[in-house]
Every structure is written in structure tokens, then in C-alpha cells.
Amino acid sequence: MMSASGERRIALAAIAGAHGVKGEVRLKLFSDSIESLARHERLYVGGAERRLLAARASGKAAVARFEGIGDRSAAEALRGTLVEVDRSALPPLEDGEYYHADLIGLPAVDRGGTPIGSVAAVENFGAGDLLEIELTDGRTSLIPFKDGIADLEGGRVVVDREFLA
Question: Where in the chain is the domain with CATH 2.30.30.240?
Fold first, then answer.
């Protein structure tokens, strides 16, 4: 998603539904903690800029309250919408760190530099990040994003062909 200024937005959570009767929403977080969401005062909810009034952990999920959402029906109407932030609002990264969103769309090449496709998605089922590579022939392949298998080099992902299914 892009902002009005053409900047890419990053989804931090999705609204799972209403929580209570005062306009709070349940969130499915895409990060590891509520703090990564709570540090932003202004977020985009369903594409509309809104101020975050409160956010707290609630079991495995999170609960938040946004400016302008005052009752259960308004909160329920947001079910399924994304909570996003401009890419520039995210904290800077250390060497070797990356945001999943920055990998999506990168070209994928083999060790010889031959194009093999592009990164379509990044998944993590608990054992480390997996890159979903959309191959030039239309197939897709999931490969571990690990040194020697898939390396981030110069704005592209260099892949060992042995790991392509």
C-alpha cells in the first residue's frame, strides 16, 4: 500500500473485530510485541489516518483504541482492515537486519547472476524466515532465508538453485 505522498506503507496488524462496547478493537499483530505498534501515535487504519489512543496486550492478541472509533458497531465495521505505518516511521535497522516488506519484490538470481524470479512473500512458521520465490516460469518455491542458501546482496536475493523445488 502507498501513502498519498507515494511512500510505501507497512502493515503492523490487522483488526480481528470489536472488543467490548466502547470502540476498542482486537488486533492480530504482525510483529513480536504490542510495543512495536504503540510507539506510533499516528497510524493508518483501513487507509485512513488515525491517532492511537491506547494499546495493550491481551493474551496472545492485542487491544487498541483509535481516535474516531467510539462504539462497538464502528469497531466491528473495521474487521479485516489493516493497521499500517509509513515505511519511514519504522526504526532504523542494524547491519544484517531487514523488514520483510523490504524483501518483497526484490529480484532473485542464481549464483551466476541469471534471473530466476522475484520474492513474492516472506513466511515464518517458527523455524526461521522462508522466502517465497515466484519463478520466471510461473511456479513458486519456498526456500530458507539463510546464508549460503539465499543471500541479500546489492538489492537482490542470490539463491542456490539446489534449494529450488
Answer: 100-163
